[in-house]
Input
Amino acid sequence: MRALVTRSPGGWPNTTFEDVDLRQGQPGQVLVKMHAGGLNPADNFQIDGQYPGGPKPPFIVGRDACGVVVQGDHKGPWQPGDAVLVLQSSTTDLEHGTLCEQQWVSAENLARQPTGWSNAEAAAAPLVFQTAWKAIKGVGGLQPGQIVAVTGASGGVGLAAVQLAEA
Output
């Protein structure tokens, strides 16, 4: 399969599309055929070797994506044909990213793709919306009717925060 891979010593000059073998899945993982992937600052930091706790080369780049389930998890809700959002997180497997044709992803890192969303929207949403949601509800404790000030509302997380606060 084709994948965007960062090789040692890392950085963009050592990041290219290559043919790689699809690894074996593990219990609790779902095989997803990727339809679109997002590339964000966290990915850039990983490629440049500046992401705290990030993977060491070689690794497949990418955290955000959307796709369709090829092989579901036997104990969970994911079945072949389900349209999903993917967020590879630092708690699971950043070495096997999403900028590839297919990937085994922890079932806990999937969400259903909202109806009416394009693949581009779905691939761009996971990291920024999760970050904004944690800031608004977790750290901020926002309750209905409260006023929110979002600084930096021109970036991905800021725009997501505005949309979530308004909703």
Observations:
- The chain is about 25% helix and 25% strand.
- The chain has a mean pLDDT of 91.
- Residues 126-139 form the longest helix (14 residues).
